[in-house]
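ping. complex inputs:
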Amino acid sequence: MTDQITTHPSKPSERMRAGSLTLTVGPWVVAAIALMIMPYIFTSNSALTIMNQMWITVIFALAYNMLLGQGGMLSFGHAVYMGLGGFFCMHIMNYVEDFGLALPLPLLPLFGGLFGMGFAMIIGSFSTSGAGTRFAMISLGVGELIAACSVIIVAFFGGEEGISGDRTYGLPFFGIEFLKQIEVYYLISFWLMLSALLMYLFSRTPVGRMANAVRDNPERAQFLGYSARWVRFYSFCASGFFCGIAGGLFAISYEILTEENLNAASSGVILLVTFLGGVGFFFGPIIGAIVFTLLQTVLSLQTELWAIYVGSLFLATVMFFPGGLAGLMMMHVPAVRLGKAGGLLVPYVKTLVPAAIGVLGICALIEMVFHVRHGATGDVEMTLFWTTFDSHTVLPWIIAALVAVVGIGIAKATAPGLKEAWDEANTPGGAS
Amino acid sequence: MELILVNIIDGLVTGLLLFMLSAGLTLIFSMMGVLNFAHASFYMLGAYFAYQISIALGFWVGLLVAPLIVGVMGAGVERYGLRRVHQYGHVPELIFTFGLALLIEELVQFIWGKNQMPYSIPEVLDFTAFSIAGNSIPAFKIFMIFTSVGIFIGLLFILTKTRVGMIIQAALSYPRTVEALGHNVPLIFMGVFGVGTALAGVAGVIAGPVLGTFPGMAFVLGSIVFVTIVIGGLGSLWGALVASLLIGWITTFAKSYNIAMSDILNGLGIATPENMSENPLRDLWTVTSPQIADILPYILMVLILIFRPAGLFGKRES
Amino acid sequence: MKNLTKLGVVSALSLVIGASAAFAENIKIAFIDPLSGPFASTGTNGLHQFEFAADHMVNEKGGVLGGTNFEIVAFDNKISPKESLIQLQVAIDQGIRYIAQGNSSGVANALTEAIDKHNKRNPDSRVLFLNYAAVDPALTNEKCNFWHFRFDANADIKMDALTDVMAADENMKKVYIIGQDYSFGKAVAAAAVSNLASKRSDVEIVGNELHPIGKVKDFTPYSRKIVASGADAVITGNWGADMLGLGKSVIENGFDGPIYTYYAAGSGITAAFGESAKGRIRLISQGGINPIATDEARATYEAFEAKYPEGNIDQSRIFNVIGMLSQAIEAAGTADDVVAVAKQLEGMEYESMWGGKVFMRPQDHQAIQDMHVAVHTDENIDFDYDLSGYGVLTESTVEMASMDSPTTCEMKRP
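pong. complex structure:
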């Protein structure tokens, strides 16, 4: 999101100030409209559930990026703040059910946020004095501790079954009791827009900007008069707040919280999700969350080996485009500005389509190897890409290998052309 | 009294195993500043390779060859993967090793399946060495102790008394200068990474029969290794040894003696509440030391990070 | 930027959700269990048993209701309750009416509540929950509901049968109980204590220990305590890596009495125990494998081995699930009205091919069947586990265990 900045004396309102709130409204409006019409395109309950999961992950990832991307703080045990917020909300939900408290459900995530923030304040008081390895290790230790405690402290965490509840007992909100999935969807969408907006605005406030400064050069920031430690602490608490909101929404959507919400695996996943999306841009984690949720739920329905593909994707991201998917997209901004992005289209098709086909060929080979190795005897048929074939004959192997080789081969051949087109597109004035 | 001796031996075995894993990790960190999340995965690969080799050629061949294979793989990972990612900073390096750990676990399942592998102690070591008050000490554990101690002495010797070790130690602190002196620093890095992972592989070969060879074995040990090197001090070999032994003994003793929290609290003068089932703090009252034995290292780590951030033997963070 | 990603999401979601709603003729049973991750082996073995049972017992015999086949649709829940709820939703949207699950009582608890709420809120797409392995007693007591059916004996029933057998051992004077620190482990311990107190009040319980689940790498300190306590027998409900670790460690460190377990067989555990545990480890379960009870069971097992040479039938109750479900559907005359099927299922008496009868108690939907205590050995084993030559040989049988046991279930019927 770029701001229009100028130092022109006659346009004081456009001069850059630390607190400037110039906000490109466009994408937000489009996003809001898209959120509202999505349920009309995907009407099934499972699609709604998956979308709810996506939006919750988006909030969590954005909150995580407040630390990672904007604050330069790598946290390993961040799932605990979401988990704790969620558990607190579950207890409130049960309290409402047992004692008839008049609390409308939409307000519930707020309590989750406050609890998450409270906990972040306690941990942040000693963990934020350093930003690097020390911070990461404390977060790892605290994360593991709380996850381990969750099985011991059964009163709050419910042991292995976790804590479950029923969301329909709250005070009806304009007559809605949240019995249907679609009502929950709109509630989550509302909180998504609100949280994303607040987080974006936070990044524009002096604290948010100073977090960027502290990330890049803490010593210099301190010379400007800001305490690096307090800036990190505020970021940490704010992040904890939004994580708690995500936890509360999780409680509403699934009506159950378990130890899985707190453990190291969840913390690891959010790190990968945020990185996949791209830590350098505000909307990066949004993309990462959406893509990852799709991969995890949808891809796992298609193949048992989804984790291999996801792991390879992460490795490829780290090695070849560490800016994440957002970084990949933003790489095209100079070309778009120069009006030359159109020239990239054909080279992209020429290189990426064969590459994609080649990759699919390799996937087919992997799937076939797995099927032959681990499938049951006599179970020779397998279904791949909508065709059923016998994996023990030679023909499918030859086809898959051919597809892979040809695809990658063409991609390699056309790659120099793509590079030329890229340079051309990024050079102003038509000079090559 | 005898039980204390038995626990000391058990704790020693656990601690030394942990040391073999953390020694490699702390060396790699001090060399390259990389926190290698995939370290425990190399440990797992060591166990699986040794199992596969031991089916055909026996345990001892596996003990020699498997770590070599793992070391070569580690060096390859450094050369073709990490070196490339190094330029992007520390976080991408970390994420790379993270993704690598995920991928290795999946590959192991892909090749060997998801079940436990029947990797067992070699026949020649499968007997009871001696007994203390009815508790038998298996000979394999004595073997583990000797191997670990041998490796430690070997490492120490190489690092402090040989020329290669001197160069490595120098490259640790001043890589540019060492490079200017004509040494091939990238090769040294690759070698250290390879040796570090080979060490993890040895740990896998030895621990595989005892702790079980299954795809989740890396995940189970992963975080405790990090705790160990943080407590010991990042980059310090002595620190890794002391921290590993400390953790080994603390967890073993905590599990052996059923120290109940209610006894401690009563001793402090706080009376046990009568209606335990409704009390929100009931879990705190009923907790016993074996339950929390495995999370004691984490508590220790957090305390050390608060009060002595560099770890027991570590250098001050620059 | 945001609209581009939304566009991508639109196309991806529509491709998948659309492509899966194709087949409407078969009766589909969703199998929601871990197919990847640390528990994948148990889940995959269970899936194979389900698929084989559906083919062998129903489809090859002409199907139910005049020709409709059973189809098992697998969903990988990665042992996560959250994933399970999402997959439940996906299954329901695909028109599946029968949900089978068993690994992890935590997931089972989440599913039974979710299914209860779903059936309440969406009366036109109700589903039944066929719980084939989650043994937390609460599922047929406080957390019972009309839609949930449990086909395995719960932890209390198993302990009741096990202690019946143990009580007959005159030499047993001291018992050590050790388990995983969560609801199931605690339930096992509590049941053991109360059962032993009533059946053999002279037996002293010299240890009652809980260890963190899935976290203990080395069981030696626990084994030392067991040996030091002078126990004659050990009882544990451990499963998976915890069972293997504990069993091996206890035997290695000098304990020479019997070890009574719930889950010490199959999934690589039998092979890993091998010779060291011969005659030592005992298992309480339903459905004896050696000696095999009927010719039908023998033929079934041999056909299973032919198809899955590396597989085991270590959850023979899965065949009972398929058998009872098909019988209920035939009797109800429909597979779509789950209330009618459920009404046929409760109170059903089914002749199991593994020997004996299975009776589904109507008051709590808990299956009552013969329970067997088997010993890990390689003698007289026709059907071994893990291609190891070792298997489980039935030593004693308790018929229709816990038929009259009480329940706190207050079932609300539709």
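Chain A touches chain C through 54 residues (CB under 8 Å).
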